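Design request, tokens follow.
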């Protein structure tokens, strides 16, 4: 997918869904400091910048940071956003941004992060008192929780649930489909870091954080771009059924603090 297309999709999704969800528990405006971890092309941050927030985007991929600087050239030039290729565990990053942010955003990121039991409490390092963290992610057991929609072979990209098969079978299917080794590696890494609703909520609790708001989606808002499907919130009773909800919920939003 073209980077500009991804950027535009990120902007639309952030403006329509992410920002309004965060505003339910945290006022946003001039003086609000926002960090996005895994910022990619930077589109999620644009609505926050336009709201008057000072934003920092951090990502491990140098090429994505450089592209984000192009997409946000005007905002970057005027100092409204800082875009950094850095690991949030790096000591210089910690020293610079300890207790600095009102809001931290992880949109479709936490499912890629290893050692989430260590990572989620580490994020508290960067929060001001009263700060909040937003998480948006696809639960592992949902139809495309393995991110197999990125596959280049049509049948491999639309086949649901096969990512939950044993690793050697899943990898074998991807090889049989002729997927590129880099794609296979990426998908196997997601399998290694798989996160469910139950496990996420447990880590949040054990990290000393509280769930401030949550919304489960039957149809992920981003699917309007990927599959032409209209976003739909999950039927509340299904959101209350542990484990089963993971199989029928394509996206969850949480704010914790």
């Amino acid at each position: 997918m073209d980077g500009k297309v991804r950027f535009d999709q990120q902007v639309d999704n952030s403006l329509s869904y992410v920002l309004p969800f965060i505003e339910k528990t945290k006022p946003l405006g001039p003086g609000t400091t926002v960090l996005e971890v895994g910022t990619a092309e930077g589109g999620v941050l644009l609505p926050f910048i336009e709201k008057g927030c000072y934003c920092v985007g951090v990502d491990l991929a140098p090429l994505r940071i450089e592209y984000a600087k192009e997409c946000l050239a005007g905002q970057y030039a005027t100092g409204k956003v800082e875009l950094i290729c850095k690991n949030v565990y790096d000591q210089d990053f910690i020293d610079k941004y300890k207790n600095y942010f009102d809001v931290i955003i992880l949109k479709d990121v936490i499912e890629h992060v290893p050692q989430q039991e260590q990572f989620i409490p580490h994020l508290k390092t960067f929060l001001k008192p009263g700060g909040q963290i937003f998480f948006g992610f696809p639960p592992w057991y949902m139809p495309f929780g393995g991110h197999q929609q990125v596959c280049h072979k049509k049948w491999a990209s639309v086949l649901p649930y096969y990512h939950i098969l044993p690793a050697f079978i899943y990898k074998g299917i991807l090889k049989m489909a002729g997927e590129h080794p880099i794609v296979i590696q990426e998908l196997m890494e997601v399998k290694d870091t798989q996160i469910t609703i139950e496990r996420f909520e447990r880590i949040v609790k054990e990290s000393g954080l509280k769930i401030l708001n949550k919304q489960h989606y039957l149809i992920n808002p981003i699917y309007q771009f990927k599959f032409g499907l209209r976003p739909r919130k999950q039927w509340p009773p299904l959101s209350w059924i542990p484990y089963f909800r993971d199989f029928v919920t394509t996206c969850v939003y949480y704010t914790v603090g």
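Comment from the thread starter after seeing the answer: thanks! Strands lie at 33-37, 54-59, 81-85, 101-107, 127-137, 211-219, 232-233, 251-256.
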